[in-house]
């Protein structure tokens, strides 16, 4: 297992990070840090209306997003490990700097190293910002001078916004692929992904390209990449409709279901991902930014 780097010392209990408002306001609308499962460092965002999100700094993964009065939009698999032996399986994790198989480990390294908490903001739109920079473990796979920054925000309209920025701090250009490998709670038999009609799709299981007609539904294992991702996708989950808005810098979308390869849980989720499967080139001193917004 890779050597990990702790980003802050765990307190005895979850405590407010900032106290710029009255104690009553902080209790209702705040950012707190404290130990999560396995004693791992977490940051919790909460709005006064009850909307909340939880982020684990190991992997920089958002593991929970609960809109006001609603069940969790995100899904964490029952086989998820919280001991740093593997990436946390579920939520809103990263595939970076590699999507899928390639020269380095599958889905890259960003999801299985510690990120550093660098800023928090409470108030009506509570947020947290974390960053990832090179260490010996990452350099052994991908020796580039990078800094990745992600800000997670609970918006006034009840949405969860995640903004990812990749900085090239070196003297030469580099390229990468990546995605937010988003696990969404759903009844697999009721899933219908809207917005992809007319898009070109590459079925990675069948190695076949075609054009989407209508909504994407799940009737077996799916691992497909959709070119020309529209700004807005919808997911009918069986109980509600989830909206996913992505910036134009996400050039593809991905839909994934393991089907019966994961018999214990495949009926309970589907992955609908914002992705950059086409390599992104970042010039020396440059940056790339992409945003995903989830609402339900």
Secondary-structure blueprint:
Layout: E1 15-16, H1 23-28, E2 30-35, E3 41-46, E4 52-56, E5 61-66, E6 94-95, E7 116-121, E8 127-132, H2 136-139, E9 146-154, E10 160-168, E11 174-180, E12 183-185, E13 192-194, E14 200-203, E15 208-211, E16 216-217, E17 222-227, E18 232-236, E19 241-246, E20 252-257, E21 269-282, E22 287-295
Antiparallel strand pairs: 1-2, 2-3, 3-4, 4-5, 6-11, 7-8, 8-9, 9-10, 10-22, 11-21, 12-21, 13-16, 13-18, 14-15, 14-17, 17-20, 18-19, 19-22, 20-21
How does this model look, in words?
The chain is mainly β and 296 residues long. It has helices spanning 23-28, 136-139, and strands at 15-16, 30-35, 41-46, 52-56, 61-66, 94-95, 116-121, 127-132, 146-154, 160-168, 174-180, 183-185, 192-194, 200-203, 208-211, 216-217, 222-227, 232-236, 241-246, 252-257, 269-282, 287-295. A 9-stranded antiparallel sheet has the order 7-8-9-10-22-19-18-13-16, with no helix packed on it. Strands 6, 11, 12, 14, 15, 17, 20 and 21 form an 8-stranded antiparallel sheet that branches. Strand 14 (200-203) and strand 15 (208-211) form a beta hairpin. It is globular. 42% of the residues are buried. The model is unreliable at 1-27 (pLDDT under 50).
